[in-house]
Design goal:
mainly alpha; 0% strand; transmembrane helix; single chain; globular; 300 residues
């Protein structure tokens, strides 16, 4: 019963790989994460290339690969699977491939509850197309398809437990996770500013602050609507979710679009500058990943 808040896509993929290969379930989980990481990198590259250039696409992938919590990309977590679906859904939206975007978003809704942010991106982008009378019935189809996976799983849990709010009830009961509008995040931030806290709290604070700056840059530079909606919604969900302040940086990992202003800036810089920046980021990512793996006692 405590496992019900886990959305089914990642466990299902792991079970499928374990069933058709000689590998154990833990190894199968790693294989799924690694393969999904490659698909995610490809999708991130596609988004960056579509918006700017191949150079920006490559830099965007490299930035995502050296995030402070990048070690999670090599663990049995859902981040890589979800990021892959996000990247290709956003790419489809940018190319106005409505049915592809809707179907990918449907699948993403079976991966993580934060798929609600991707559903918002698909739905609102489709709404704009409807108002402008663009692309006929396809935006309507995307808007209808996009939430079906997410809502379907919530409905299944509700039916199984006999209450409409079953998923959120289980999440709060067993994991102490809910949406409090940022109250818990503000309390943790106050702790960071007024008393000694673990290193992971400082890193999360730094990443949340950087995310605010990057969102402002996305808006000022008028990036496409799907990227703005998804990035802003994902940030709000991340800070609005109670508890687990130390993991806020990991929560933000699928919001790779936030890295676009940095990727564009680095693409315009001198090669020596770019190499220096990435050398520093690789060292920081490796050091912090080691800390999370060997010293930190809780989830990364």
């Amino acid at each position: 019963m405590p496992n019900l808040p886990f959305f089914p896509l990642y466990p299902g993929l792991v079970a499928a790989v374990a069933a058709v290969t000689p590998f154990s379930t833990p190894v199968a989980a790693l294989i799924v994460s690694w393969l999904a990481g490659l698909v995610a990198a490809w999708g991130i590259y596609a988004v960056g290339t579509h918006l700017a250039s191949r150079t920006v696409g490559l830099i965007l992938v490299a930035l995502w690969a050296v995030l402070p919590h990048a070690v999670v990309q090599n663990m049995a977590y859902t981040e890589t699977v979800f990021t892959a679906l996000v990247a290709w859904t956003l790419y489809a939206l940018l190319r106005r491939q409505w049915l592809t975007a809707g179907l990918l978003c449907l699948v993403a809704g079976l991966a993580r509850p934060s798929a609600s942010t991707l559903i918002a991106a698909v739905g609102l982008t489709a709404l704009v197309a409807m108002v402008r009378r663009q692309d006929g019935w396809r935006p309507w189809a995307a808007a209808v398809l996009s939430p079906l996976g997410y809502l379907g799983y919530l409905a299944w849990i509700g039916h199984r437990l006999g209450r409409a709010d079953a998923y959120f009830y289980m999440q709060e009961k067993y994991w102490r996770i809910g949406f409090d509008g940022g109250v818990s995040t503000l309390k943790a931030l106050k702790q960071v500013l007024t008393q000694p806290v673990p290193l992971s709290y400082y890193v999360s604070t730094l990443l949340l602050g950087l995310a605010v700056v990057l969102i402002a840059l996305l808006v000022l530079h008028r990036y496409p609507l799907p990227l703005l909606i998804y990035s802003i919604a994902f940030f709000l969900i991340s800070i609005g979710t109670e508890n687990y302040y130390w993991a806020k940086g990991r929560y933000l990992m699928p919001a790779f679009a936030l890295l676009l202003p940095i990727a564009v800036g680095l693409a315009k810089s001198r090669r020596s500058t770019m190499l220096t920046v990435f050398a520093f980021l690789v060292l920081v990512s490796g050091w912090y990943g080691t800390y999370l793996s060997l010293i930190w006692k809780y989830s990364p």
